[in-house]
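Local shape tokens

___
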Amino acid sequence: MPRSVNAVASRRRRKRILKLARGYWGSRSKVYTIAKNTVEKGLQYAFRDRKVKKREFRALWIQRINAATREHGMSYSQFIGKVGAKNIGLNRKVLADLAMNDPKAFAAIVEAVK
């Protein structure tokens, strides 16, 4: 009985990896074994950085709110504490957007909190 190899599935698997490796430099996009390692590492980074992106955006929002509240003579921590105490239902993302794009509305929120 002849030896059975599933060349169709093997080729499909290799083509999928090489397609993901398009745009990589040199043998990272040409040689299967090297491309496989590079693609696996890239997918690890992608998984990790989907979580890191959320942290980085929260930090950016906090910096923007802090800068805007200091213009009104208040620190970030005081502002957020008073926003929570007054039950103002705006999250940091919305507050940062207001601070950047609508300073008058943000000033009204700061006055309401004071």
Observations:
- The chain has one domain: 7-113.
- The longest helix spans residues 32-71.
